[in-house]
Design goal:
The protein is an all-alpha fold. It contains seven helices and no strands. Bound molecules: fe (ii) ion (FE2) (2 copies).
Length: about 190
C-alpha cells in the first residue's frame, strides 16, 4: 500500500516535470523565433534547446523506471501569466522567466534532498539542475544589461511584480508539489 502511494506520487511528479519542461521548451522556442536582439537570441535558443532536452531526460528516466507519463492538466506557466499580467516586452518576458526559473531550481533541489529517491531520478535531477543554474545566470545578466534601455526602476519593478505573482501561484499550485516531495520521504519511513 505504502509502495503504491509512493509510486503514484512519483508518477505524478515525474509527469509534472516532463510536462513543465515541454511547456518551457515551447514557450522559449516561440520566443527564440521572434526575438531580434542577437545576444538574447543566442542565449534564448540555447535555453530552448535545454528545456527540450530536459523533457527528453524525464521521459527517458520514466521509461527506465517503467513509469508511463500521465496527463497533467494544470499548466504552471498559464497560472503565472494570469497572476502577473502578460509581459509587454522582452524585458518583462525575462522578468517572468527569472521568477519561474528560480522556482523550478528550488523545487528540483528540494526533491534532490529526499534521501530515498531512485538513482535514475537523482541523476536526472543533477543533470538538469546544472542547466537551470545557467538559465538563472543568463537571464539575470541580460536583465541587468537592459537597464539602460528600459530604465533601472522599470526593470526592478517588473522583477518584483513577477516575484509576487510567483509567490501567489506557488501557494495555489506548487505548494502541492512540495507536499508530495515531502511525502516521498514519509512513505519510506512509515
Ligand atoms: Fe528545464
Ligand atoms: Fe530552465
Amino acid at each position: 500500500m505504502i509502495g503504491e502511494l509512493r509510486g503514484d506520487a512519483e508518477r505524478w511528479l515525474l509527469s509534472y516535470y516532463r510536462a513543465s519542461e515541454i511547456d518551457g521548451a515551447l514557450f522559449f522556442g516561440r520566443l527564440a523565433k521572434v526575438i531580434r536582439d542577437p545576444a538574447v537570441q543566442y542565449d534564448l535558443t540555447r535555453h530552448f534547446a535545454d528545456e527540450s532536452q530536459h523533457s527528453r531526460w524525464w521521459t527517458d528516466c520514466m521509461d527506465d523506471l517503467g513509469i508511463r507519463p500521465m496527463k497533467v492538466v494544470s499548466s504552471y506557466q498559464d497560472a503565472y501569466l494570469e497572476a502577473g499580467g502578460a509581459p509587454a516586452n522582452v524585458m518583462e518576458v525575462l522578468a517572468v522567466t527569472l521568477a519561474f526559473e528560480r522556482r523550478v531550481a528550488g523545487s528540483y533541489a528540494a526533491h534532490a534532498r529526499v534521501p530515498t529517491i531512485a538513482p535514475q531520478i537523482r541523476a536526472t535531477l543533477a543533470k538538469i539542475m546544472k542547466d537551470e543554474g545557467w538559465h538563472i545566470q543568463w537571464v539575470s545578466r541580460t536583465l541587468e544589461n537592459l537597464k539602460p534601455s528600459y530604465g533601472a526602476d522599470a526593470v526592478t519593478a517588473a522583477i518584483e511584480r513577477y516575484a509576487a505573482a510567483d509567490r501567489e501561484v506557488y501557494q495555489r499550485t506548487l505548494a502541492e508539489h512540495d507536499e508530495i516531495v515531502r511525502s516521498l520521504d514519509h512513505f519510506k519511513a512509515a
